[in-house]
Amino acid sequence: QIQLVKWADVLLLTPGRYIDSKVLNNAKHIKLIQIWSSGFDKLNLSSIKQNKIPLANNGSVNATAVSEHTVLLILSVLKKIINFNKITTLGKWHGNSHGMDCYNLNNRKVGIIGYGRIGKKVADLCKGFGAKIYYNDIKKVSQKNKNLKYLSLKKLMNYCDIISLHLHYNEKTRNIIDKEHLKLMKKNTIFINVSRSGLVDNKYLNFLLKNKKILGAGIDVFDKEPTRKGDIFLNLDNVVLTPHTAGSTLDTYEEVVNNCYENIIHVLKKKK
Question: For labelling, which of 94, 132, 157, 179 has a CA lying 20 to 30 Å from the CA of 204?
């Protein structure tokens, strides 16, 4: 890696990852580190700053993909899609009684933690289903929007039927949804995490799911990736899991690559 960066003008990380300080100290000609994701949490930020290397992410170019995936997980848990696929494939279904434990998204109270680009898109999609939207964020939006209501984090955790997490992972947000917050959820609550695993006390979330203290969860991010045998969320019948693919679609990648390329060209031409 040292030999690789010595001659380079730009470093493109796909996705963002930790690079040792010994390598970055040799990046004498680097005019830009460009990552094609939005999160900075895996980077060696202190060394990047120390070497005064400009750093750029890709904004929330994946916001559409992530928000659609979020609603996919919500509906998959509400409609028990994994189990229904299984019994249909096996031909082990009789009558319609198996639908009595499913629910509509319509009229459900959706609580969004982190009301940025992705959170707003999730809200818009859920509104299309007739859901009621609540949010928590460090910034409050205009109160003119009557279809949106701010709640404190604890109030949101206790009041909403569906809780969807859309925060960046950093020192301030680490374990922000701790045991005390998770305890507040009602028995019919669904918890969705497509952001970062480190935002949540996953051991206690697993306890709630395993003991049917909440209705279910949709999870796209994990403490260790890829998942492996023995991971705590595997084999729970009230959880839908996906392999950190919420933001991964061909449409998104095409836009990501174009944005990275344009940004690199701007920097090489000494533009912003």
Answer: 132
Question: What is the Cα–Cα distance from 272 to 270, expressed in whole angstroms?
Answer: 7
Sequence-distant (6+) residues with CB within 8 A of 88 are none
Helices and strands in the chain, H and E counts: 10, 10
CB atoms within 10 A of CB 97: 8
Extract the tokens encoding 263. Answer: 């940004």
With a CB cutoff of 8 Å and minimum separation 6, the contacts of 166 are 66, 70, 112, 113, 114, 115, 116, 118, 119, 122, 194, 195
**What is the dihedral sign for C-alpha 74, 76, 78, 83?**
negative
pLDDT single digits (tens) 94-110: 877 777 889 999 999 99
CA distance 247 to 62: 5
